[in-house]
Amino acid sequence: MMFLLLFYLIQNKALLLTPGVAVELPRVAGALPEGYSGTLVVALDRKGNLFFRNVAMTLNDLPRELKLAAAGRTNLLLVLQADRRASQESITRVAAIARASGIHKTWLATQPGLLKKPAGAKTQ
User: DSSP secondary structure string, the chain?
Assistant: First the structure.
């Protein structure tokens, strides 16, 4: 039984948030991205502070770090764990920095919604 529990925890380590970064993700139902060779994760808190690989950094440092991480790799996906109260401007800047660093797709991380609406249901 312990082996199964350990196996489960190891398999789901990607679902854990970056430790030490208080980010409240928005709740939205959606599908996971597919077809990417790898992912890089950047966390953005409500105050606009950035974290990459558990290290706090500024918008000026992020392009250099992303270029180093993306060097020699293709078809990467940037997963942005942005707090639901983060400004749209901050989110857009991080996506633009990623694009300029060679990462052309940015995915906004969300918490899965508890109740999914059926396909074709109207939203208000």
Answer: -HHHHHHHHHHTGGGSPPTT------B---PPP-S-SEEEEEEE-TT--EEETTEEE-TTTHHHHHHHHHTT--SEEEEEEE-TTS-HHHHHHHHHHHHHTT--EEEE--BPPSSPPPTT----
**Could you tell me the CA-to-CA distances from 37 to 31, 33, 72, 80 in Å, in that order?**
17, 11, 12, 17
Report the alpha-carbon distance of residue 101 to residue 68 in Å, rounded.
Answer: 9
Rounded Cα distance, 91 and 103, in Å: 15
Task: Kindly report, residue by residue over 17-76, the tens digit of the pLDDT.
Answer: 545 666 666 666 666 566 677 888 999 998 889 999 889 999 999 999 999 998 888 888
The pTM (predicted TM-score) of the whole model is 0.66
Between CA 65 and CA 93 the distance in angstroms is: 15
